[in-house]
Automatic annotation (TrEMBL):
Positions of transmembrane segments: none
SMART domains, per the entry: Tryp_SPc
Family: Belongs to the peptidase S1 family. CLIP subfamily.
GO molecular function: serine-type endopeptidase activity
Compartments where located: Secreted
Every Peptidase S1 domain range: 39-285
InterPro entries recorded: CLIP_Serine_Protease, Peptidase_S1_PA, Peptidase_S1_PA_chymotrypsin, Peptidase_S1A, Trypsin_dom, TRYPSIN_HIS
Any single biological process term in GO: proteolysis
Organism: Anopheles dirus
Residues annotated as signal peptide: 1-17
Hydrolase found in the keyword field: yes
Protein name: Peptidase S1 domain-containing protein
Any one GO cellular component localisation term in the record: extracellular region
Keywords annotated in UniProt: Disulfide bond, Hydrolase, Protease, Secreted, Serine protease, Signal, Zymogen
Length: 303
């Protein structure tokens, strides 16, 4: 394969009214805990700092092993990359996939961790496993996520979808991906990534030129900073009007020339979530129910 999955073998959903009797603080894209503080040479994430991160596990030899990241959209819906789910298609997803939320240490399920069974998975119907086009999927949970200070939904991108409007902006990615020692990170890490022109990806490695489509965008960090194997499926989060929105899903980077799982070009292709809002909405359990409404950014805010 000329590209390498980052998997090991990345809001109209969120504002709850008083009418449904649930917590009034269930608001998308906002931390409920003030946190002030190496993904590849990234910084460790503190509990409650990025409460919408989800870790996806696959059953392997009677045990669940970490495979990918994901993002909490609502109490029953996790956003991730299609290639994170496709290996278990045709199997009983409730047995083969497990989702953890509220967890910042890979091998330690702390008091904030919720382990959630899966009801079913929804892969974009035009996902191309050979070329990674439409690399987006939703995991529907069998049990409801209990929102609290450490587990919250992110906002779905509802602003302009043109990629030119986010070029030059910095976003944050999260993950338990491979370190320089070729092992999964034991602690959830974050990295700041800049959205750049697609041509930057294409010029850095020919694999980008072959596989990138208009439904993807390019992101890169400083030397040694970026997504690595195991980070895929996680989101790229951009801040707007004091809230965090998921704009991208970590999809792929060129195959490394070494065994560390690092990104040889320092750039990564992201599925552009803004191109899939109309596909996501019908599948989101609480998109138009129970008082949830679309968060509207400040019209004066530039993005």
């Amino acid at each position: 394969m000329l590209y390498k999955f980052l998997v090991l073998l990345s809001c109209s959903l969120c504002v709850v009214s008083e009418m449904d009797g649930r917590r009034e603080d269930l608001v998308c894209g906002r931390r409920l805990i003030n946190t002030d503080p190496m993904i590849h040479k990234g910084r460790k994430v503190l509990a409650g700092q990025w409460p919408w991160y989800a870790a996806i596990f696959h059953l392997d030899r009677d045990t669940h092993e970490y495979k990918c990241g994901g993002t909490i959209l609502d109490e029953y819906t996790i956003l991730t990359a299609a290639h994170c789910i496709s290996p278990v298609l045709g199997m009983n997803s409730s047995n083969w996939i497990l989702v953890h939320v509220g967890q910042t240490q890979l091998d330690v399920a702390g008091t904030n961790t919720q382990k959630l069974q899966v009801k079913n998975v929804i892969i974009h119907p035009r996902f191309g496993e050979a070329d990674l086009d439409n690399d987006i999927a939703l995991i529907k949970l069998a049990t409801r996520i209990k929102m609290n200070n450490y587990v919250q939904p992110v906002c779905l991108w509802t602003m302009a979808s043109e990629q030119c409007k986010i070029v030059g902006r910095n976003g944050t990615i999260l993950g338990f991906g491979m370190t320089e020692e070729n092992v999964l990170a034991d602690h959830l890490k974050k990295a700041t990534i800049q959205v750049v022109e697609t041509i930057r990806c294409i010029e850095s490695a020919r694999e980008f030129g072959k596989f990138m489509t208009s439904r993807m965008y390019c992101g890169g960090g400083p030397p040694g900073i970026g997504a690595s194997d195991g980070d895929s499926g996680g989101g790229m989060f951009l801040a707007d009007n004091s809230r965090w929105f998921v704009r991208g899903i970590i999809s792929f980077h060129p195959m490394s020339n070494n065994s560390t799982g690092s990104n040889q070009s320092n750039f990564t292709a992201y599925t552009d979530v803004a191109k899939y809002i109309d596909w996501i909405r019908p599948h989101a359990t609480h998109m138009d129910k129970e008082g949830m409404e679309e968060p509207k950014p400040d019209k004066k805010e530039k993005y």
